[in-house]
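Project channel, design review

CF: Before we commit to the Salarias fasciatus constructs, I'd like one complete example in the thread so the newer folks can see what an input/output pair looks like. Taking Immunoglobulin subtype domain-containing protein.
RD: sounds good, go ahead.
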Amino acid sequence: MWRFRLWDGRDVAVFVSIAACLVQLAGSISVLAPQRSFTRSVQEDVFFSVDATCPGTPTIRWTFMSGAVSRLIGTWRPGASANITDDYGGRVRAYDNGSMGLSDLRLQDAGFYVVTVSEAAGSSKDVGFVLKVNEVLYEDLQYLSVSAVALAGLAGLLMLAMWLLDKLHRKIAAWRRRKQMPENDATELQPL
Ligand SMILES: *[C@@H]1O[C@H](CO)[C@@H](O)[C@H](O)[C@H]1NC(C)=O
Ligand SMILES: *[C@@H]1O[C@H](CO)[C@@H](O)[C@H](O)[C@H]1NC(C)=O
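CF: and here is what came back for Immunoglobulin subtype domain-containing protein:
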């Protein structure tokens, strides 16, 4: 008998209004992201800019995904200190609006980044980003080797210049000695 009472009109109405409330809350979380895809080179920085707003204080969580790997980067709340995992210690900057800066990029950083913004009642919203990380380009290496050759050439020129100066100095010294000799001879010979 009370089985029927459990599902009477009033209970259903309460259930429906709770569900509607949850949907409404989920809808009121907003995550703006001007740019969703980035390409960077190794050792460069990337700034995932987002502006997260929701009723109350949002909790921001950033996760990294690549292939089968899913790794927590960190969680924080605006105004409180961020909790960044050891893997990312020192490389991550957390911002109150949910943005995240990642510095000193490595090849392994390429993949998907997901920011999850959740509010106290438990609803949340995800936004994903794609990061491509390029190796240092061949042209850069060529540029480096060209600079190395130029530096070696400059060093060679400097050594040549020093050698020439040294030779010139010796020549002048010898010429002076030779120029002084006859005078010395003359003064020494004079009494004779
Ligand atoms: C979030 O905050 C940072 C730092 O104040 C700012 O540079 C960035 O533009 C903001 N992002 C958005 C989407 O407003
Ligand atoms: C930071 O996160 C780790 C892993 O989720 C958790 O064990 C730890 O309690 C957190 N620390 C703080 C201060 O929130």
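RD: helpful, thanks. The beta strands are 30-32, 37-41, 46-53, 59-66, 69-76, 83-84, 92-94, 98-102, 111-118, 124-134.
CF: The mean pLDDT is 85.
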